[in-house]
Amino acid sequence: MSDGDVLYSPIDLWHNSFPITNINIIMKIFLKSTLLTLVSLLILSATLVAQQPARPGAPAQRPAFRMPARIVSPEILPDNKVIFRLYSKDAAKVTISGEWQSGFGASETLARNDTGLFSITIGPLKPELYSYTFTIDGVRAIDPGNVQVRRDGLNYQSYFIIPGAESDLYVQKNGVPHGTVSKVWYTSSVLETDRRVYVYTPASYGTVKQKYPVLYLFHGAGGDEDAWTNMGRAAQIMDNLIAQGKTKPMIVVMTNGNANQAGAQNDVPPLASQGEQGMAAYAKYAGKFEEHLVKDVVPFIEKNYRTLKGKDNRAIAGLSMGGGHTQTITNNNPGMFSYIGVFSMGIMNFGMQSDEAAKMDQEREVKIEALKNSGYKLYWIAVGKDDFVYQSVVTLRNLLDKHNFKYIYRESTGGHTWTNWRIYLSEFTPMLFK
Amino acid sequence: MSDGDVLYSPIDLWHNSFPITNINIIMKIFLKSTLLTLVSLLILSATLVAQQPARPGAPAQRPAFRMPARIVSPEILPDNKVIFRLYSKDAAKVTISGEWQSGFGASETLARNDTGLFSITIGPLKPELYSYTFTIDGVRAIDPGNVQVRRDGLNYQSYFIIPGAESDLYVQKNGVPHGTVSKVWYTSSVLETDRRVYVYTPASYGTVKQKYPVLYLFHGAGGDEDAWTNMGRAAQIMDNLIAQGKTKPMIVVMTNGNANQAGAQNDVPPLASQGEQGMAAYAKYAGKFEEHLVKDVVPFIEKNYRTLKGKDNRAIAGLSMGGGHTQTITNNNPGMFSYIGVFSMGIMNFGMQSDEAAKMDQEREVKIEALKNSGYKLYWIAVGKDDFVYQSVVTLRNLLDKHNFKYIYRESTGGHTWTNWRIYLSEFTPMLFK
User: Fold this and answer.
1) Quick check: A33 pLDDT over 70?
2) How many CB atoms lie within 10 A of CB B148?
3) In this predicted model, what pLDDT tens digit does every residue of A344-355 receive, in sequence order?
């Protein structure tokens, strides 16, 4: 399929509008059918429309009768090049920013043909999940041709997967048993509100009436309880690893790491306490998330799910801010979690020499010693060579080394990215509960 | 807040990039703090960023220190007027299309000020949930300033709620007990695939170990298992009605009504069978969804959830195509569901007089008679005066009248819209299981 073949009349399904103009045509097709209700027509219409959209790798096909079509974007070619397309007869400039580009704020410009079809071919790309956005005359936008959209905090991005070994765990596969992702509400006595947590239960949970170990998994700053399943493909990674026998079936608990939120801001209205600004809000909540995790979340999960109890059946991990949460919680609660993962976060040292800083360092050393003696089984630290928190991880490792604290250090390429965090999750979970 | 006060430097959070430039400023603030990890900074940054975004009704506030801000859009004013804003120094024309407008393809044009801030004030609007999109130089886009986004099939829309009596059930409320929404996979022997279903269990399900009645709730053409919770606010409606004591606690089961899909196309890859075109795919699946609902879905739910059994504990309802599904299932299975809701769908009669059509009509009459004698408790039909399927509902009512089949008819204003379907759900569920 070349660009010239693209049907680029934008379809308008606004407000559930039905393509009435096609009814007469469809009626003739169905005239001798026994299926006479409009239901049939709606099904057919939906089917034909559904066959047109951007489905990576699926070429556009002309339907049996003329129907407005959607732009096919992105189109993944056999050699892993990717064509992006956008139709606008009025736009002057369209650029694309995507995760395959390097450098902050990088973008590429789409070429416009004489009908108003903008397109660009990039790659070939290595197998991975890539997000991207268009910028249309200065406004960042998702690709209207691509139904695959994810939310990164306040921002929406289109994405696609280049299939292959490196991205295989991220693909939602027909035929692989899928766990359940539930949006569950619990009461936090510490934070004095009901809060939302995502709970992944493995596919076998519904049928095998055994008890399961639990991984508590934290997102980073700007994220929320939706981040690990949305940005991090946690459900697909767990489904696929469990199906391959590499990871033990476990429950994964992903709660909102922002102490001042009840839930993700796209779904859940802000708490009254969120009205407090800057330092006031910060002071109010310092350490509270970590405290509530231990006092509220773990008891809630262990009461309401078929869980194995004790430290050897509890794992904890988090990225960035969540890696800080993980350190704080495990330092403060030795003997509670035997499997600990710190992704892309260490100990920040701004060179301060105040008494308070020294006291905090001292307290941390005492806690590390206690954690060392608690009988944990795994302390796994991962960071990318290019991560801006890299030095903080060196500081953490130096502290642990000083105490002969055993840990596994995994240094990857790349920086502070979801690409790395997906990889870390897929490497960390096979080591748990074994 | 006037337009002139808007901070319109677009913030760039692309790729989880961290506003490094602020670290030095934040460091000074924290210099005497005991909280020395970067975690603190990330939390603070996230908090400050989070305080800036478009939160309907929340005015933008200048943070304690200078930080890039997001455009506030939409801003709901005390008199229920709404200001939309979009920043682009390059766009020539920006229009907005929203559910408050009437007429197919209606739009309004935003005004540009001399800095590139486009804005428009609309309303006042009556309390309701409204979706909208911008069109930026010919390209439809969500509002980059608004984190509230919903998906209507292939299309993404921004939305907001004007608070008030008419929209009160649609608001996710802090303090109201929230049910759990789970994305569950089940095996369909009829459709020969694993499929995804959304299951709402009421807030009490986790704590009150009783059995619950079940509502099977269907979406329309173009929708999927995500539609009733996403477009239809089903979780909020059920939470709020149950909290008010108006609706009995029940399980709500929302599966994918497209027989050729395993799940929503934004999350779940297409089945191989979806490659079949038009009539072939249609013929293969005719009636299969309805059959699988009875043979696969109901048994799965009744086995895996604490359900009350028997027809008096089963309700079924759907909109548009799902109203057709509801009719087919209840016609074919008298005595299975005592509570039946048909939203925005009747019987289509294209004036065909073929033998097959006559035979089908005749069979339907036999089935209606059997359903009448099955001891159902409620048959509720709802449609809008302006709905394009209105006449089909007249046909259905005439058929039911002919058989002295008791039903309740609810005629609303408006057309074939989610606005109506939310209202219908909020009116239908209080009548169930009583």
Assistant:
1) no
2) 21
3) 999 986 555 678
CB contact under 8 A, A46 and B138: no
Does the pLDDT of residue B270 top 70, yes or no? Answer: yes
pLDDT of residue A105: 85
Contact A221 B279 (CB under 8 A): no
State yes or no: pLDDT of B363 exceeds 80: yes
* CA–CA dist B236, B234 (Å, integer): 6
Q: Do A133 and B193 touch (CB under 8 A)?
A: no
- The sign of the torsion formed by the CA atoms of B302, B303, B307, B308 equals positive
pLDDT digits (tens, 9 = 90+) for B87-104: 999 999 999 999 999 877
| Dist CA A357 CA B195 (whole Å) | 54
Tell me if A350 and B324 make a contact (CB, 8 A cut-off).
Answer: no
**Residue B127: count of CB within 10 angstroms of its CB:** 15
Asked if B139 and A88 come within 8 Å (Cβ–Cβ), the reply is yes
Chain B residues in contact with A196 (beta carbon < 8 A): 178
Mean pLDDT, rounded, of chain B: 85
**Under an 8 A CB cutoff, do A36 and B349 touch?**
yes
Question: Contacts of residue B258 in chain A, CB cutoff 8 Å?
Answer: 43, 46-47, 50
Q: What is the CATH number of the domain that holds A353?
A: 3.40.50.1820
Asked if A255 contacts A195 with a C-beta cutoff of 8 angstroms, the reply is yes
Q: Place B407 in a pLDDT band, splitting at 50, 70 and 90.
A: very high
Identify the residue with better confidence: A45 or B33: A45
Domain that holds residue B153: 3-163
Shortest distance between the Cα of B335 and any Cα of chain A, in A, equals 23
Q: What is the pLDDT of residue B390?
A: 97
Q: Which residues of A touch B21 (CB under 8 A)?
A: none
Please say whether the beta carbons of A421 and A232 come within 8 A: yes
Cβ under 8 Å to B: A residues 362-391: 388-389
Mean pLDDT calculated for residue range A295-302: 98
Residues of chain A found within 8 Å of residue B33, distances taken between Cβ atoms? 356
The answer to whether residues B199 and B76 belong to one domain is: no
Residue A183 · residue B176 · CB < 8 Å: no
B13, B37, B143, B389: best to mutate for the A interface, most A CBs within 10 A: B37
Whether residues B372 and B413 fall in one domain: yes
Determine the residue type at A64.
Answer: A
Total count of residues recorded for chain B: 434
**Neighboring chain B residues of A267 at a CB cutoff of 8 Å:** 172
**pLDDT at res. B433:** 98
Does the pLDDT of residue A420 top 60, yes or no? yes
ipTM of the complex: 0.86
Of the residues B144, B163, B182, the one at which a domain ends:
B163
Residue A375 has pLDDT above 70, yes or no: yes
Please report the residues numbered 296 through 335 in chain A whose beta carbons come closer than 8 angstroms to any beta carbon of chain B: 304, 320-321, 323-325, 328
Looking at the structure, do residues A10 and A139 belong to the same domain, yes or no? yes
Judgement on whether residues B247 and B377 belong to the same structural domain of the protein = yes
| Rounded CA separation B397/B401 (Å) | 6
Residues A177 and A157 in one domain: no
Interface of B with A in 38-67 (CB under 8 A): 38-51, 53, 55, 58, 61, 63-64
Q: Which of B121, B137, B163 is the last residue of a domain?
A: B163
Peptide bond into A74 cis (omega under 30): yes
pLDDT of residue B212: 98
- By Cβ distance, the residue of A12, A148, A183 closest to B181 is A183
Query: Which residues does chain B have within 8 Å of residue A91's beta carbon, measured at their own beta carbons?
Result: 136-139
B18 and B129 assigned to the same domain: yes
One domain, residues B133 and B148: yes
pLDDT at res. B360? 86
A150: domain CATH number is 2.60.40.10
What is the crossing angle of helices A278-285 and B38-51, to 10°? 130
Q: What is the total count of domains within chain B?
A: 2
Are residues B181 and B153 located together in one domain of the fold? no
Element (H, E) at A402: helix A390-402
- pLDDT of residue A156 exceeding 50, the answer is yes
Give yes or no for a contact between A149 and B266, defined as CB atoms under 8 angstroms apart: yes
Q: What is the pLDDT of residue B281?
A: 65
